[in-house]
């Protein structure tokens, strides 16, 4: 019986691979004028800033702060670089942060007092946070890479909405990425399609920088001038610097740095092997590429986003990127139960993580709980159910090809 299923699947597989173009690898986006975005792990600008400006912004991103400079009172690490460093500044790391909360009688998520982020460090032991009893929904969140995120910010909302529509259409609703509109801190009252963070909690790199400066480092800035609490209790007695602590607007330089980074580069030698190329076909044919979208195009230069605060520069506009992610929320059976900027339907959804740069990390999934590609893949269920069933029916050679392809990302 199993043998028969295998033979049928192999026949299906062979038929599918004869399709003229792999449907899911087609370019999704706006214009036919196509320029590939530059890639590299080399601390070089993508052309948006000149190299001297980029180097200066990078140094600001690499600074480690002290309590005298505004760090804390509650915080997770001393600098952006602490968690965004491997293999170059701005990328990811093994550092994870903690979130916690509980559900109320109606089943709605309620964050722990003072917010679901539980800070791991404090400048004084009396304000140290911890997971209180009863906050029984807990999750780790792995650090994400910010490389190439300027291109992601330059994707039009409509492009992401179109990817979601197409998924639903082509899979008869089995796979249907959720789009959420999130507030823009730099444009009060306005929203945009979320695309950054495991929960798509932000749509702009300035909003994320402001959030991270406050929540990861405890440094207030002009768009978030109010200090965090320690589990809801004021920490004012320990705060040494007047708010906003980021008097020079470093948050703008963090955003400018990330916008000017190149996209993560492939391992070209490996990617060009016959085995990895065959693996890319497997990835498309069995449907991984439905969510892990191989190719997206950015909006044209001059397009205004984020309430007019981000006009797509020539270096970022009309660029083709290969993120292997759709920047949409899905339920693939791994949900962490936490609600951030979305509504309650997002509790068990996560953004498809872009797989570009995958070979630079091995603690996979939002909580780092899968350590091999095989584990990460077989943990997918829910919306990914049919795709994973097709994965299970691959023969050994096809699986090996898929793994080589993933290793080349
Ligand atoms: C303690 C570790 C830590 C520090 C310090 C830190 N980050 Fe992060 N960063 C994370 C984690 C963890 C995530 C994923 C968070 C999530 O979505 O829940 C993240 C995500 C991001 C993202 C989203 C990337 C994407 O493509 O979705 C951006 C942008 C970012 N951080 C910028 C910054 C900036 C700027 C700083 C410094 C002000 C900073 N981070 C400091 C751990 C950190
Ligand atoms: C329905 C959409 C969907 C499909 C189909 C899908 N994935 Fe995913 N993938 C996700 C989501 C969402 C996550 C994040 C889950 C989490 O963190 O808990 C993920 C996580 C991953 C990760 C871990 C990445 C990281 O940075 O931690 C890998 C590797 C991966 N997928 C590979 C695959 C492969 C290979 C296939 C095809 C066999 C596939 N996925 C099919 C949505 C999908």
Q: What would your notes on this structure say?
A:
With 409 residues, this protein is α+β, with helices and mostly antiparallel strands. It has one domain. It has twelve helices and 15 strands. Strands 3, 4, 5 and 7 form a four-stranded antiparallel β-sheet that branches. A hairpin with a 7-residue loop joins strand 8 (181-183) and strand 9. It is globular, with a radius of gyration of 22 Å. The two termini are 36 Å apart. Residues 1-5 and 15-25 have low confidence and may be disordered.
Brief descriptors of the model:
409 residues, alpha+beta, 15 strands, binds heme C, disordered N terminus, 12 helices
Topology of this protein?
Blueprint: H1 2-17, E1 35-36, H2 51-62, E2 74-75, E3 96-103, E4 109-111, E5 117-118, E6 121-122, E7 137-142, H3 149-153, H4 157-170, E8 181-183, E9 191-193, H5 205-215, H6 250-259, H7 268-271, H8 274-286, H9 288-291, E10 296-297, E11 304-305, E12 310-311, E13 319-321, E14 329-330, E15 350-351, H10 373-379, H11 385-392, H12 396-407
Parallel strand pairs: 1-13
Antiparallel strand pairs: 2-6, 3-4, 3-5, 3-7, 8-9, 10-13, 11-12, 14-15
Helix pairs in contact: 2-6, 5-6, 8-12
This protein binds heme C (2 copies).
One heme C (HEC) binds near residues 332 and 383.
């Amino acid at each position: 019986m199993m043998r028969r299923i295998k033979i049928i699947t192999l026949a299906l597989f062979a038929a599918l691979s004869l399709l003229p173009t792999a449907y899911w690898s087609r370019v999704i986006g706006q214009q036919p004028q196509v320029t590939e975005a530059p890639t590299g792990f080399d601390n070089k600008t993508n052309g948006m800033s000149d190299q001297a400006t980029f180097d200066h912004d990078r140094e600001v991103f690499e600074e480690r702060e002290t309590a005298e400079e505004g760090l804390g009172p509650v915080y997770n690490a001393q600098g952006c670089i602490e968690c965004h460093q491997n293999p170059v500044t701005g990328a990811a790391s093994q550092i994870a942060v903690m979130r916690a909360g509980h559900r109320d009688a109606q089943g709605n998520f309620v964050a722990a007092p003072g917010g679901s982020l539980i800070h791991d460090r404090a400048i004084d032991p009396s304000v140290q946070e911890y997971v209180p009893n009863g906050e029984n929904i807990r999750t780790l969140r792995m650090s994400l890479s910010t490389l190439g995120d300027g291109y992601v910010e330059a994707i039009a909302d409509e492009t992401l909405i179109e990817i979601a529509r197409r998924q639903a259409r082509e899979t008869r609703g089995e796979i249907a990425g959720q789009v959420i509109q999130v507030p823009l801190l730099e444009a009060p009252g306005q929203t945009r399609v979320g695309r950054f963070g495991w929960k798509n909690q932000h749509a702009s790199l300035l909003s994320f920088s402001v959030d991270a400066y406050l929540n990861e480092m405890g440094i207030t800035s002009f768009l978030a001038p109010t200090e965090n609490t320690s589990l809801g209790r004021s920490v004012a007695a320990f705060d040494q610097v007047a708010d906003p602590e980021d008097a020079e607007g470093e948050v703008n330089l963090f955003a400018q740095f990330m916008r000017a980074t190149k996209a993560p580069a492939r391992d070209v030698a490996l990617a060009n092997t016959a085995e990895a190329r065959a693996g890319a076909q497997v990835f498309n044919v069995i449907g991984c590429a439905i969510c892990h979208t191989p190719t997206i195009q950015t909006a044209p230069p001059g397009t205004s986003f984020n309430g007019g605060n981000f006009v797509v520069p020539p270096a970022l506009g009309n660029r083709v990127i290969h993120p292997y992610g759709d920047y949409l929320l899905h339920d693939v059976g791994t949900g962490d139960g936490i609600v951030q900027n979305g509504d309650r339907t997002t509790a068990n959804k996560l953004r498809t993580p872009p797989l570009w740069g995958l070979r630079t990390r091995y603690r996979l999934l939002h909580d780092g709980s899968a350590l091999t590609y095989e584990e990460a893949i077989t943990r997918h269920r829910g919306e990914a159910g049919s795709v994973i069933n097709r994965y299970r029916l691959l023969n050994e050679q096809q699986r090996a090809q898929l793994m080589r392809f993933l290793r080349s990302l």
